[in-house]
Structure formats: structure tokens, C-alpha cells
Design a protein that fits this description.
heterodimer; A: 306 residues; mainly alpha; 78% helix; B: 282 residues; 11 helices
């Protein structure tokens, strides 16, 4: 078990190194020049050169990368070009807002997905099943920003139930979390349905039914616990995807999380922030997958390593 | 024939196919059926106060903030979505097929290295990567398509890899090899044809993802650039007006949703029909 964990951790570190290397090369090889951006429109060539020198952008790419990695292993993401602050500080300041949104979104997602998926599986092939599957397909096909704007239009601009944008109270969380949750629920519903159908066809479910266990108990005590595994795996993947995927929702709702931080940085070509957010998001994806892998044997004894 | 018959038995799949065909036809004949020109800032396209006009007899879906006919722009926007959808997703499926097939066929260190590359890509925050790339290049139709392809090939590669590994072990490949067939003959005559169902399914399902991604990038202003119409940038251009002119969000939104949904429905039905082991599952 410990060997497995160590091997997975080693693999995770390699992946993070790879992500850092690729992002670094992409960002520094791209046509957008942060020095020109920072110097402003009326800057002379000399000013631009000075800024480039100050930021260390005139050094060979490989040296810059080694330098960056050296700082990174000490937990230092460098300084933002435009905000003159440590990237780590900026990210840590924004992280709680994104985490709140993430937790709220995932709770909504899992609640809707588990309910709809179970109902569909129990009515397999019937009208309800087809209705749920169609609705969940609409969910996965709907563009996030349109749903966000429509929720704003109906519940904020027209009904005034919730604020248009901002952060601070529970009422602020509802619409952005709903946007994420409604759309993500489609995937969960489809996956829960397929996992439940598998489980309901198992011999032990037939045995439970045969010995007279009530249908309610069969579903709640025998089927759902056994169908939990793919949900846990999916939550793990979701945690990672959320970090990189909240840009749109945070932009529409003016939510001060790391998605918004990244979005501002992208517009200002603030490369250290873009690097930092990308790495943090990758880290979240890697950790999410790792946790899902490590939790799986705890939930399901069958996959405990022999 | 069996495929067509099974396909037609599914009402949702038929609905999807009809919508896909309508969108394709609308995009192709857009210049003929569009009531106005897509860039025409019509003299009577704004109210006296300069606000966009809601749906009426002259402008069936209303006008946008510059007084252009929304229906016309949606029809031309369908061209953008479909071109990007087909080009970006076609490229992604081709890359995914190539990488997955090579990795599954070669195995060994080379195959392993290729699969580690897909592990690496899976750890990238895909949407963030796409936004960064699109923003830092000077965005155009083709750049957007390539960015989407770069982000979307990974999933196909992993599925193709698993399938190829299974195929390579099969007796008919062993037989062919013992008869002295070369690598290229085995790959192109025996493995590739078996992967076609997967390619077709992902060639359809992937278009839904691509259309959504293009719309998202364009909505953020880093995708297709105005005045070239795209469903995403129509919403981008009018989002500050959306409380007073909701049709500027609703109609393009419906267009994106219906198109993505239809490609998903058709792809899902194809997956069911072409791969019976998956029937009734995801």
C-alpha cells in the first residue's frame, strides 16, 4: 500500500514537472510580449529593453526555466508583473472564494445527479428513464455562460431574489453555484444511472430481493453504496476541472476567485500569474485523481490490493 | 441498413439528425435565405434612442446593438460554428487516432512515452489552457480551431489506445503477422478499419464539445473576432445589454444549445448502435 502511494506520488510529481515545462515554453514562446504590454503604448525601445532586463526576460529560455523551477520547489511562484505582489499571496487570497463555489457546485451536482440517476435506473427503459436521460443531455449540451446570463436575467434582474454579482453573503453563492451544479448534474445523472444498472443486475441484489428485502431497502442499503465508487472517482476529477473551469462563471458573476485572477492576468499578459494558476489547477487535478484512487479501496474492499 | 433502421427507431436520434441537417443547410444557403447582409448596420435597425429592436415582422429575431439583423447573423454564425466544429474536431480525432493507435500497437518504451504524454495532457486544466492559448495568439477562425484541437485530442487517444491494445492480441492479427504482413499492412488494413466506429462516434460527439468550446472562447472575446459573426461573440457583443435586450442572449444561446444537443444525440445513438457492449449505458 505504502509502495503504491509512493509510486503514485512520484508519477504525480513527474506530471506536474511536465505541465510546468510545457506551460513555460508555451507562454514564453508566444507572440504576446509582456514587456511591451507593461511599457505601454508610447514607450521607447530602450524602456522596453530595460523592463525586459528587469524581469529577466532577456536571458536564455532554459536559464529562465531553471530559475523558475528553483523558486518553485521552495514554494515561490515569482512576482506578478502588474501587481508587484507575490503570485502565491494573490492566489491564496483568491482560493477560498473558488473553494466555496466548488463545494457548493459539487454538492448541487451530486445531489441532483444521484437522485435523477437512481430514478432513471429504477425505471430503466421506461418513459421516466428516457425523460431523465434527455434532460441530462440538455444539461451537458448547454453553454455555461448562457445559463449564467439567463439565471441572472430571471432571478436577479427580473425577480430581484439574488444580487447581480459580487461576493460576501450566502445569497451571492446561489446563482453561480447553481450554474455549475445544474450543468454538471447531467454527467453525474448519466454515470449514476449506468453504475446503478450494473449493480441492480448483480446476484447479491437478486438475493436480497429473493429473501424479501423491501425495494426501498434494496436501493438504499444494497445498490447505492455499491454504486458510489464511480461517483467518488468523478468527484476527484471534478475538483481538478473546477479550478480551471470556473473562469467563465467567475467572469459572468464577478466572483473574486482564481478564475477571475487568471482571466485578468491573461488580458494583461501577466505570465507569472498565468503560470501560477495553471500549476495550481494542475495540482488540483492531480490531487483529485490521487485522492479518488486512494479512497476507492476504502469504499470498496474488492479492489484492495491483494 | 441495419444501422439506419436502428437509428430511425430512436425518436431523440432522429430529432438530433433533423436539427443537424437544418443547421448545415442553413449555414450553406445562408447568403440566399438571410433577409439582410450580416455586417449591414441597418438604418431602421435601432430605435430612435439607439437601442436594439426586439423581434418583429421586419426583423424576425430582432436586431443587435449595432442595428444588424440577428437572424442573419445567426445564420452566418452557423457557418463559423460548423467550420470550427468540423475542422477542430476532425483534427482532434485524427491526432487522437494516430497517437492512440501507435501507442497501442508499438507498446514498449515508445508506446509508454506516448501514453505518458496523454496523462500529462489530462492533468492540464483544459479550458484554462484553451483560453490562454487563444488569448495570447492573435485569435482567428483557424487559430481557434487549432487551439480546440490541441485540447480535445487526448480523450480520443486514450480510448483508441485501449481498443488497439485489445485488437493487437486478437488471433486474426497474429495470423496475419505469421503470414509475414508488415506493420503498415496490419495497421491500415486490419486495425484502422476496426477503429472506424470509434472514430465516427467521436467525430460526432466531439463536435458538440467543440461548438461549446468555440462559443465559450468567443463569448470571452478571445475566440472568433467581430465583426465576423459567431454565436458566442454575438452574446459577447451584447452582454451589457442583456437585461434590456434578452433576445440577444436567448436566441444565440438556443442555437448553441440545440446544435450541441443534436450532435450529442446523434453521436450517442451511433455509439449505442455501433458498439452493442455499451448499449443502455452512458
Amino acid at each position: 500500500m505504502i509502495e503504491l502511494i509512493l509510486r503514485r506520488l512520484g508519477g504525480a510529481l513527474m506530471i506536474l514537472f511536465g505541465v510546468a515545462a510545457i506551460t513555460f515554453v508555451l507562454l514564453y514562446a508566444l507572440p504576446a510580449d509582456p514587456a511591451v504590454q507593461l511599457a505601454g503604448r508610447s514607450a521607447t525601445a530602450q524602456t522596453v529593453a530595460n523592463i525586459r532586463h528587469q524581469l529577466g526576460l532577456d536571458q536564455p529560455l532554459i536559464l529562465q526555466f531553471v530559475h523558475y523551477l528553483g523558486n518553485l520547489v521552495q514554494g515561490n511562484f515569482g512576482r506578478s508583473y502588474t501587481q508587484k505582489t507575490e503570485v502565491m499571496t494573490l492566489i491564496l487570497a483568491r482560493l477560498p472564494a473558488t473553494l466555496i463555489l466548488m463545494v457548493a457546485g459539487i454538492v448541487i451536482e451530486v445531489a441532483i445527479g444521484l437522485t435523477l440517476g437512481t430514478i432513471a435506473a429504477l425505471n430503466r427503459g421506461g418513459f421516466v428513464d428516457r425523460l431523465v436521460m434527455t434532460v441530462s443531455f440538455i444539461g451537458v449540451s448547454a453553454p455555461q455562460f448562457v445559463v449564467a446570463l439567463l439565471l441572472l436575467y430571471v432571478f436577479a434582474a427580473t425577480l430581484h431574489w439574488f444580487p447581480m454579482s459580487g461576493f460576501g453573503t450566502v445569497r451571492h453563492v446561489v446563482l453561480p453555484a447553481l450554474t455549475l451544479g445544474i450543468l454538471g448534474a447531467g454527467w453525474y445523472a448519466r454515470m449514476v444511472r449506468s453504475a446503478m444498472i450494473d449493480v441492480l443486475n448483480q446476484d447479491y441484489v437478486r438475493t436480497a430481493r429473493a429473501k424479501g428485502v423491501s425495494e426501498r431497502s434494496v436501493v438504499l442499503r444494497h445498490a447505492i453504496p455499491n454504486a458510489l465508487l464511480p461517483i467518488v472517482a468523478m468527484i476527484g476529477i471534478d475538483i481538478g476541472q473546477f479550478m480551471g473551469g470556473v473562469v467563465v462563471v467567475e467572469a459572468v458573476y464577478g466572483w473574486p476567485g482564481i478564475g477571475q485572477l487568471a482571466w485578468q492576468a491573461i488580458q494583461q499578459v501577466d505570465i507569472p500569474i498565468i503560470m501560477g494558476v495553471t500549476l495550481i489547477s494542475s495540482l488540483a487535478i492531480v490531487i483529485g485523481n490521487l485522492v479518488a484512487d486512494l479512497v476507492a479501496p476504502l469504499i470498496d474492499p474488492r479492489i484492495r490490493a491483494p | 441498413m441495419r444501422i439506419a433502421r436502428e437509428f430511425l427507431r430512436r425518436p431523440t436520434a432522429v430529432f438530433g439528425l433533423v436539427v443537424v441537417l437544418l443547421v448545415v443547410i442553413g449555414a450553406v444557403v445562408a447568403p440566399l435565405i438571410a433577409p439582410y447582409a450580416p455586417d449591414d448596420q441597418l438604418f431602421d435597425g435601432l430605435t430612435l434612442e439607439g437601442a436594439p429592436i426586439g423581434p418583429n415582422a421586419a426583423f424576425l429575431l430582432g436586431t443587435d446593438t449595432l442595428g444588424r439583423d440577428l437572424l442573419t447573423r445567426l445564420l452566418f454564425g452557423a457557418r463559423t460554428s460548423l467550420i470550427i466544429g468540423v475542422v477542430a474536431n476532425g483534427t482532434a480525432v485524427a491526432i487522437g487516432l494516430g497517437v492512440g493507435m501507435l501507442a497501442g500497437y508499438l507498446r514498449g518504451p515508445m508506446g509508454n512515452a506516448l501514453m505518458r504524454l496523454t496523462d500529462l495532457m489530462m492533468a492540464f486544466p483544459a479550458l484554462l489552457l484553451a483560453i490562454v492559448l487563444a488569448a495570447l495568439f492573435h485569435p482567428s477562425l483557424w487559430i481557434v480551431a487549432m487551439v480546440i484541437a490541441m485540447v480535445n485530442w487526448v480523450q480520443v487517444a486514450r480510448i483508441v489506445y485501449t481498443e488497439t491494445r485489445g485488437l493487437v492480441e486478437r488471433d486474426f492479427i497474429l495470423a496475419e503477422r505469421s503470414l509475414g504482413a508488415g506493420h503498415s499492412r496490419i495497421i491500415f488494413r486490419h486495425i484502422l478499419p476496426h477503429l472506424m466506429p470509434t472514430a465516427i462516434v467521436w467525430g460526432t460527439l466531439g463536435i458538440a464539445t467543440t461548438v461549446l468550446l468555440e462559443a465559450t472562447l468567443s463569448f470571452l472575446g478571445v475566440g472568433v473576432q467581430p465583426p465576423e459573426p459567431s454565436w458566442g461573440n454575438i452574446i459577447f457583443e451584447s452582454q451589457s445589454f442583456f437585461t434590456s435586450a434578452p433576445w440577444l442572449v436567448v436566441f444565440p444561446g438556443i442555437a448553441i444549445l440545440l446544435t450541441a444537443l443534436s450532435f450529442n444525440l446523434v453521436g450517442d445513438a451511433l455509439r449505442d448502435i455501433l458498439d452493442p457492449t455499451q448499449r443502455g449505458r452512458m
